Structures are given as C-alpha cells and as structure tokens.
Amino acid sequence: MIRASGLTAGYSRSAPVLDGIDLSVREGELLGIMGPNGSGKTTLLRCLYGSIQPFEGVVELDGCDIGAIPARDVARRIAVVPQETEPGFDFKVGEVVTMGRYPWMGVWRNGRNGHSAAVTEALERAGILQLRERQMSELSGGERRLVYLARSLAQSTQALLLDEPTRGLDVRHALSIMRTLGRLGRGEGLAVAAVLHDLDTALRFCDRAILLKEGKVVSMGVPEDVLSPENIRTAFGVSSSIHRLEGGMHLEVLG
Description:
Elements: E1 2-9, E2 18-25, E3 29-34, H1 41-48, E4 56-61, E5 64-65, H2 71-75, E6 78-81, H3 93-98, H4 115-125, H5 141-153, E7 159-163, H6 171-187, E8 191-195, H7 199-205, E9 208-213, E10 216-221, H8 223-226, H9 229-236, E11 240-245, E12 248-253
Helix pairs in contact: 4-5
C-alpha cells in the first residue's frame, strides 16, 4: 500500500534526519515505528503521507509517487492522527468527526451523500457513539484521542497513520486505542502504522515493527525479533529482557 525506498529526508539537505530508509506499510497489519527521541520517527511518518518530500528516494502510494498525487486524493486514501490535534474552538464530538469527511465533500461542504452515515459508523467503530452530542471541552484526554481516531476513520481511507496515539493516556484508554488499532488492521484490513514510545505495547499489539536510531534502521520485522535485548541496547543504551507469559509476552527494561 505505502512503500518507501531509499528514503533520505529531513529539514536540511546538509543534515538529513532519515538516511536510506526502506519500509512498507501493508494492508491488514499494525506496524509500530519506534526509536529514541530524535531518531526520525515523526519525520518518517510525515514522509509516508507526503507532508515532507524526500531529498533522495521515493514514497509510493499504491505504486505511484505520492508527491505526484493531488493532496485531496491522498487524503481520500490516507488518514493521519498527529500528536497535536486540538481544535481551535469547542466543537461537539459529532462536528469534529464530520471534519474527516471533508476530502469527500463538494465545494459547498454540505452534509449530504451519506456523510452522516459515515460519521455514525466511524463513531461506532471507535466505540464512542454515546459521545456524539458532547462538547470536546467536556471530555477526558483519552476520550478526545478516541474522537480524533473516529475523525480519521470517517475519511474512509485504506491507510491510517498515527503519531504517538497513546501519549499521556491512562492504562485503560491506552489499551482501548491499541485494541482498536489492532482490530482496524487485522480485522478490517486497513494498513495501520503508529509511532510508539512504549516498547512493551508494541511487543503486545504490533504485527511488525521498525526500530530507528539516528535516522537509520536498527532492525525491522516481527516485534519479538526487533525488540531483542541486543537491539534495545543498540538503540537506547539500556538493558532489557522479554518474558513469556500466559497469553503473550512482556518486555521489561532493566536500566
């Protein structure tokens, strides 16, 4: 679905953030993007949806250079949930989720042609239909994150890219987000990629993972292999161990 080849990119050609990245985001899976601060995770995500054009290499969307695809068409195929998504005004939840329909609306941005039904479906998929008439200012941080996830689902895209979707959330809301992302990938066939800081979360929920350090790939593959003690020591400079428990695995950082 989304493929990066030989990707060298950043904000200054003399000091690129990413160096020769090869990566694919496939339908039917959840890909975790990990690495220490400054390793290029957010920059990589921005390249994958065309916000940043690479200095070298190419990002392809269904075989076409994403830089040659009109932004409106990209928005119909890739939905993005960035780190900071606070609206400028206190909208109702249903109004915020309706914003996800903009790529599909006509010039007058009317609510016809099935947009209301798509919004309802997005709210149901995110598990927050009961919040539709609530004001955003009334919600907790975890509930707001679910609203922004619903907004991205309302775009009716094939791919979903998220930057730290569990950042600052309590355990219950973080688990809710990750379970939803896993269902969207494996259950509904979307191509889902998320920047994650919690390595244990990635180990538990992701189908594939990529570990970055200083803009280069340390490892890529199944999370159990990517998050090996050797790779974590290389990327983060800390010791760790993986414990096999009933129903899954747990990664412990030892310091």
